[in-house]
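Exercise 7.
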Amino acid sequence: METLFISDLHLSPLRPQKLDLFKRLLQGRARQAAALYILGDLFDDFWVGNDDKTPPNPDIISELLAFSEINKNLFIIRGNRDLMLDQSFRDVSGCTLLSDKHVIELDGEKILLSHGDIFCSNDIGYQRYRCFMETGFTRFVFPRLPYALRIKLSHGLRPMIKKSSNKKAKELIDVDQSTVEQAMIDSDVLHLIHGHTHRPDVHKFLLKGQNATRTVLSDWYVNDSVLVCENGERKMMGVEEYLNS
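Solution. The predicted structure, written as tokens, is:
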């Protein structure tokens, strides 16, 4: 059976065709998959809580719940847009929330899964922001703020971070290879799958004298893709191509 990986969908009312594609994926062939992993940034707006009614979030959650009622192997890793997701999200969506740098076994091989932003270690400013958002204090206080204030903060963060990112060199906001390698060594794996950078590719390199692979998933802003893994084979496919194959 197929195991599927997608990331960085950034679903938004501004791109209704991608929302429709996501629905067709969940309502179609993916229901028979061994597992579906969403490696972060499912939502385009910053997640503010399970009471978030910003379109198309309620529609997305409804689709996830319908999928999970048929296929229980639906997993999500938090991305930088959905850092505030917590285990209570399972109650409304049926998804199992995984920690970042999560190891799975697939076709006899251990694979490290991540959103990918934690490997952008040269971007000190972003890593400080991420650490602040991950503190127990922030994670306790933020969901208890009034809904209107959480929405206001969320909408204020997005243009601020976008403006900051536009000023940074591409090398700064890409992953750092030494950070990647150390994470793979610490997890005792030779294959890493992540998203975040919006630079889909398959990178081959030597890790302690052994062949290693870093697979970067595509975002869905313009193009889209799903990584299909079955019987030791891995193939990156456009979602439409996958649904029609």
